[in-house]
Amino acid sequence: QSVLTQPPSVSAAPGQKVTISCSGSSSNIGNNYVSWYQQLPGTAPKLLIYESNIRPSGIPDRFSGSKSGTSATLGITGLQTGDEADYYCGTWDSSLSVGVFGGGTKVTVL
Amino acid sequence: QVQLQESGPGLVKPSQTLSLTCTVSGGPMSTGSLYWSWIRQPAGKGLEWIGRIYTSGSTNYNPSLKSRVTISVDTSKNQFSLRLSSVTAADTAVYYCAKVRAAAAVDYWGQGTLVTVSS
């Protein structure tokens, strides 16, 4: 059971938009920045968003992040077949004193 | 560009100790206020933080693993290490070493190494 809650899967047609939610509590998302990761099959995760809404260099602006209260959201616009992957949210949990992740969301491009 | 590479046995017997080393290249580990972490992922499952270490040597461990985990750092070799004792089949996973910026954002990952616990 993950500390952060994500939907198991989302899907949309090419060119459409998907959003992935990440729900936590005051000890994690509520008082810390959120990061988002993309994991393609057989590879290590890749940082997409940090500090809740900042894209590292090289990440296209089709990916966006936001946070409100104890929840965060990753948005992907202009969906491409190459976006099919598992997506994870993560943050620091101040009560546990450790990083925590969501259970992951599989994005399918129909 | 920071690069990380895990090394260590791919097979560990139950009740023994899993030991992995992460070698960091692309610059000295001690530059800046940096954290270094171990994260694991069982096959078909999600990511799990094991713990992190500052270059000063202070650590934070996952409470569920704390009694069995030790993370150490050797900045002279640009390496940090993981030891997980009394392993069981539940510890079988891909183990990643990682560089972490503030708020637990992992900006660099190793390629991962599969460790199987089996007799």
Brief write-up:
The complex is a heterodimer of chains A (110) and B (119). Chain A is mainly beta.
What amount of the residues of chain A lies in strands?
over 45%
If helices are DSSP runs of H or I spanning 4 or more residues, what is the number of helices of chain A?
A: 0
Number of helices of chain B: 0
> What structural category arises from helix and sheet content of chain A?
mainly beta
Helix-and-strand structural type of chain B: mainly beta
How far is it from the N-terminal to the C-terminal residue of chain A, by CA? 29 Å
Task: Please provide a written account of the structure.
The complex is a heterodimer of chains A (110) and B (119). With 110 residues, chain A is mainly beta. Chain A starts with 8 loop residues before the first strand and ends with a strand. In chain A, the strands form two sheets. In chain A, strands 1, 3, 4, 7, 8 and 9 form a six-stranded mixed sheet that branches. In chain A, strands 2-6-5 form a three-stranded antiparallel sheet, with no helix packed on it. Helices cover 0% and strands 45% of the residues of chain A. Chain A is globular, with a radius of gyration of 13 Å. The mean pLDDT of chain A is 96. Chain B is mostly beta strands and 119 residues long. Chain B contains no helices and eleven strands. In chain B, the strands form two sheets. In chain B, strands 2, 4, 5, 6, 9, 10 and 11 form a seven-stranded mixed sheet that branches. In chain B, strands 1-3-8-7 form a four-stranded antiparallel sheet, with no helix packed on it.
Task: Summarize the topology.
The complex is a heterodimer of chains A (110) and B (119).
Chain A: E1 9-12, E2 18-23, E3 34-39, E4 46-49, E5 63-68, E6 71-76, E7 85-93, E8 98-101, E9 105-109
Chain B: E1 3-7, E2 11-12, E3 18-25, E4 35-41, E5 48-54, E6 59-61, E7 69-74, E8 79-84, E9 93-100, E10 106-109, E11 113-117
Parallel strand pairs in B: 2-11
Antiparallel strand pairs in B: 1-3, 3-8, 4-5, 4-9, 5-6, 7-8, 9-10, 9-11
